[in-house]
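Can you give me the bound-state structure? Components:
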Amino acid sequence: DIQMTQSPSSLSASVGDRVTVTCRASQTISTYLNWYQQKPGKAPKLLIYAASSLQSGVPSRFSGSGSGTDFTLTISSLQPEDSAGYYCQQSYSTPYSFGQGTRLEIK
Amino acid sequence: QVQLVESGGGVVRPGGSLRLSCAASGFTFSSSGMHWVRQAPGKGLEWVALIQYDGRNKYYADSVKGRFTISRDNSKNTLHLQMISLRAEDTALYYCAKDAGYSNAHSFDYWGQGTLVTVSS
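Here's the bound-state model for the whole set.
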């Protein structure tokens, strides 16, 4: 089974900052990597699919990159509404797996 | 608009059974793969199962294989998860999620609000 490891587990940043979250797969997954945002008490929301494709309706300040085993989610200019949990998920092979999550707090 | 509404959660004793349902609307259910994803209280997301659009192929997490069965009724636009031999570690909010259908990614573009399963004596 493929293990997904995110870092950091939590971070705090200011409005306007550039923020990066990384995700590493235990084996190569090509670009079969998706990113989700989850706010407290809400269902997750798809942000990025296939490593770098922006889901419809998602603000362009969100971007994704990477292939193989190393991936990055970047928020170019942090907004107050971006305070949330962020999860990567591999869809290369079943059982699909998520990273443990990154909690992003606004200073 | 796409809607996914889960039901069937509740409190069950260890070793018990429960059947979850997810009523889908606003999209062509019979053309979409569907997933169950769960989240234990205060914890991260865990993928549980996938059923392809026609119900022919099903896939499971190792943690539920042999105990959970995913199924669908395309005539009623409904997804199910039959759970037996439940354990305390199955306690979670269970989400149904629609597969986005992208050829290069099994991603989940719509989610329900979740139904809570609590396994406790």
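A couple of observations. The mean pLDDT of chain B is 96. The radius of gyration of chain B is 14 Å.
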